[in-house]
Design a protein that fits this description.
It contains 2 helices and 5 strands, in the order ββαββαβ. By secondary structure, it is α+β, with helices and mostly antiparallel strands. Helix 1 crosses helix 2.
C-alpha cells in the first residue's frame, strides 16, 4: 500500500493534479559525519529540479548509515535528487508514515 498525497498545484502547463508518494531512503555511507550529512541535506532541500520534500534524515554513525524520509512523484525522482546532492541512496522504497501521539503521562 502506497501513501499518496494529492495536491492541487499542477505541474506547470499540464492542468493536471499531482500525486506524491512518501519514500524511505537507506544509505550506506562509510566515514560519514554530521557535518558532511548537513551539507548534503542543504543541497537536497534547495534542489528545485524536482517536486520533492525531504522530511527528515537520521545519521547512525556506528553503522555508517543514513536514513531519510522524502515525499516525491516517483522513486526515480528521489534517486535523481539524491544523486545530484551526493547522497548514496542504495534503497528507495515507498512507505506509509504513521504518526505517534504521546499520551499524557500524568
Amino acid at each position: 500500500m502506497e501513501h499518496t498525497i494529492k495536491i492541487d498545484a499542477a505541474p506547470p502547463g499540464t492542468g493536471q493534479r499531482s500525486e506524491l508518494t512518501t519514500y524511505f531512503v537507506e544509505c550506506y555511507w562509510p566515514n560519514v559525519d554530521e557535518g558532511r550529512l548537513e551539507a548534503v541535506v542543504e543541497k537536497l532541500t534547495t534542489d528545485d529540479q524536482a517536486d520533492i520534500s525531504w522530511l527528515s534524515s537520521i545519521l547512525i554513525p556506528g553503522d555508517e548509515i543514513v536514513l531519510c524520509v522524502a515525499i516525491g512523484p516517483s522513486e526515480e525522482a528521489i534517486r535523481a535528487t539524491a544523486r545530484r546532492a551526493g547522497l548514496p541512496a542504495e534503497r528507495v522504497v515507498s512507505c506509509v508514515p504513521v504518526s505517534l501521539q504521546r499520551k499524557d503521562l500524568r
